[in-house]
Recover the amino acids of this structure.
């Protein structure tokens, strides 16, 4: 599997073990490259990448650069409480951000992972309803969790133990502007 070098840890809460994956920036970028290769080798030809924000932003950006394909951004929101760990009602933005006047017909829809699968399944159902010009669509993620109700077309790693994934950018979830000087460690930025 792709994650053999990624640190897996186990935590125990209320007599329940929960696996965790800790992913570095280098590992994260390597996973995106592996996903790009899988998509390329599949011969699926697309003329539009749509990333689901926020998790799919970085994946979509890198794939857009590799495939030289336009990127559109679709915002969704469903994790509302429990520090972002408890799923609430899924909200899909009414509009997409894109630089072309019209969405491409053949879409690669990307996200970082398919966890419960509810978001990806709903977006796959909703996009052709909102954009009837979409004639083909495939999904691509880095991680596909076994608990998912949706199976992506492309994935790098299938996770049978449903771990919590600690991605490298999560450090910014709790970092605030007034903490930057301390984090940078130089008392500020030198210009």
């Amino acid at each position: 599997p792709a994650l053999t070098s990624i640190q897996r840890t186990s935590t125990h809460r209320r007599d329940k073990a929960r696996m965790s994956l800790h992913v570095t920036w280098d590992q994260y970028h390597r996973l995106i490259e592996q996903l790009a290769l899988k998509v390329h080798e599949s011969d699926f030809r697309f003329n539009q990448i749509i990333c689901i924000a926020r998790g799919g932003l970085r994946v979509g950006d890198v794939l857009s650069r590799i495939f030289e394909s336009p990127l559109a951004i679709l915002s969704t929101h469903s994790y509302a409480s429990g520090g972002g760990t408890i799923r609430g009602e899924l909200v899909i933005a009414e509009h997409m951000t894109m630089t072309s006047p019209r969405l491409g017909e053949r879409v690669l829809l990307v996200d970082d992972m398919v966890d419960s699968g509810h978001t990806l399944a709903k977006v796959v159902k909703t996009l052709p309803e909102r954009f009837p010009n979409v004639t083909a669509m495939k999904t691509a993620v880095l991680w596909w969790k076994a608990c998912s109700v949706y199976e992506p077309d492309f994935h790098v790693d299938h996770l049978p133990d449903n771990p919590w994934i600690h991605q490298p950018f999560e450090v910014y979830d709790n970092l605030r502007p007034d903490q930057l000087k301390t984090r940078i460690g130089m008392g500020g930025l030198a210009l």
Remarks:
- The CA atoms of residues 184 and 191 lie 14 Å apart.
- The chain is about 25% helix and 35% strand.
- Residues 25-42 form the longest helix (18 residues).
- The two ends are 44 Å apart (CA to CA).
